[in-house]
Amino acid sequence: SHPEVPDQKTTSLYEYGLIIEPWDFLKLLDHSLYSWIAVWSEDEGMSRIRNEWMTSSIPTGTPITSSRRQGSISGLFEGISDEGYLLIKYSDQDIAIISFGDVHVDM
To answer: Measured between alpha carbons, how far is 29 from 16 in angstroms, rounded to an integer?
Structure first.
């Protein structure tokens, strides 16, 4: 099951056909995070992580919104910077560099 949150889409692993005990999932998550942290510590680690992320992410040009306490910014997904920041193109020439916030795909 998953929580119902007003104005937020929620889901669960079960809805995608994955049935796993919480402890077993935690072990898988721990192993995966440890592996990616090891990659990150390599000389070109962030570049590899960025490339892997981009192959699995939404397509460039997808409408998105990033929200945080200071407000929100909407635009088109431009990618992930070499440093790992989210890039949102919000006008013909301007790109916002986002270091944190809730991100929603605007469909």
So the answer is: 17
Hey, what are 16's tokens?
Answer: 């995608």
Residue 102 β-bridge partners: 67
**Residue count of the chain:** 107
**Pairing mode, strands 95-98 and 86-89:** antiparallel
Print burial letters for 8-26: b (CB count within 10 Å at least 16), e (below 16). Answer: eeeeeeeeeeeeeeeeeee
Question: Which pTM was predicted?
Answer: 0.75
Q: pLDDT digit string (tens) for 8-58?
A: 788 888 888 989 998 999 999 999 999 999 998 988 888 999 999 999 999
Virtual torsion, Cα 69, 71, 73, 78, nearest 10 deg: -20
